[in-house]
Every structure is written in C-alpha cells, then in structure tokens.
Amino acid sequence: MESIHTLDLKDQQYISHLRLQSSGKDFKQFRRLTLHVEEEGQLNALHQSSPIFSQYDIIAVSASNETLLKKCIDNGDVDIISFDFSQKISYPLRNKVISNAINKGIHFEILYSKVFGKKDAQALWLRNALHLVRISRGKNIILSSGAKDPLDLRGPYDVSNLSCMFGLEVSNAKHIVSTNCRSVLLHAEARKVGRGAFVSVPLNQLSEEQHWMVPEFSQIPIQKEEQKQDQKPSNTPQQPNTQKAKTQPNKRRRSQNKSG
C-alpha cells in the first residue's frame, strides 16, 4: 500500500493563489491513495469505514490477478483501476469485468511515463492499451504520467495526441484529459456521501461527466428545454367541434316522421 508519487515544485511562483483568485479561479489539491492489491486480505482496507479512506480524496487500486480485480470492482469503494501496461499483465481483461466497472463509474488509468526511451516497453504498452480501448469502447479511460522525474511529464495536448495512437477519436481523446478526470472527482465525492444522503436530479440536468450515474443513459430519451418550449400549447383558442351537435336534431326529426 502506498500513495502516488509526488513531485516537488522547485519554483512555487507559478502557483500563486492570489493570482488565481484575482482571475476568478481557485487551486485545490486532492490527495490520492494507490493500493497494490496482491492478497485477498488486503481487500479489508477497501471499505468506506476504514480510517484510511477519510484521509484521501481518490482511491485507486492495482490488482495482481483477475480474481482480485473482480472483487475490487464489486466492492464499489474504488474510483480508479490503474494499469502499468509497460509490463505484461498476468491475467486477461474480459469484457464482462470491464463493463461492470464502467457501470459503477470506475475509471481505468493508463500510465505512460515508463514507455519513454524503451522500444520493447512501447510495443507492449501500445498493444495492451489497444486491447483495453477495444473492450471498453473508449469509455472511462484516463491517462496519467506515474512519473518520478519531472522530465517525464507531458502537457495535456501531448497526452491527448498520445491517446490517438491506440485508436481513440479526437473527441474521446480530449475527454481523457478533461471530462473523464472530472468524472473521477465526482465519483469520489459521491462515494463519500452516497451512503448518507441522496439528491434527486432530473436527467435533462445531468452534465456530460455525470452520465456514468445512469448506466442506461443512452437508451433513455431525454427531452431538452427547447423541445419542451416547442410543445407548449398555442394561445389561440380552439374552435369547438359542432359536428355532433348538428347531427343530433336530424335524428330527432327522423324519429318524429316515423311516429307520425
């Protein structure tokens, strides 16, 4: 069990809280814990009541076999599943397991810093990443550096372009460094308060990064506000249907003629 690597910023002037506040922005640093699960007994730490959980904002796991991976996903108190694709994975990534994680809002993290300058690692990394993208259909994927050296860090545009190498479209590649990362933070926040309270929100008010909360979101027709305005009844009064009123006197006259 260990926390994610931290990099010391030698020049702190680039993170000026006063400068951010003057521009209407705020800087918030989140704490993350990465659990390398190798034995089933370590899963006891993956519980919301664990004192370790209250000290961290984001919980990530790295499982050593498929059985532990399934149990980490079924546990539900996990935000990220981290993969080091520069090394050979000892278990297959199955579609059913990955789909279960996606339905629970769990994201998959691909580390990229260990492939720089290593051709053998690059080929293995690319092959594993392609497989994950194929079975997940490009959903719930984030790219992180996992770097121990600041020289291994890359900018968001470089990381986005890097994800295009394993078959992601440009729109999904942008989500890897933006929307999906915000979804991880929302999932972590919901995990903390989910057992104590709930909030009812209409589907048409959910943002794109909150779609994971509704697994069948793509199958539910959502009526937008514009469509509602088009369906509002017009102010012009409708003319009453007088056809039936006209036909009733004719029936009475016919009955009177027959009786006479």
From TrEMBL:
Superkingdom of this protein's organism: Eukaryota
Disordered, as annotated region: 218-260
Cellular location(s): Nucleus
Biased composition (Polar residues): 232-248
Keywords: tRNA processing
GO molecular function: RNA binding
Biased composition (Basic residues): 249-260
Pfam families: RNase_P_p30
Primary site of residence: nucleus
Matches recorded under InterPro entries: Pol/histidinol_Pase-like, RNase_P_p30
PANTHER family tied to this protein: RIBONUCLEASE P PROTEIN SUBUNIT P30, RIBONUCLEASE P SUBUNIT P30
Family stated for the protein in its record: Belongs to the eukaryotic/archaeal RNase P protein component 3 family.
Protein name: Uncharacterized protein
Organism: Arcella intermedia
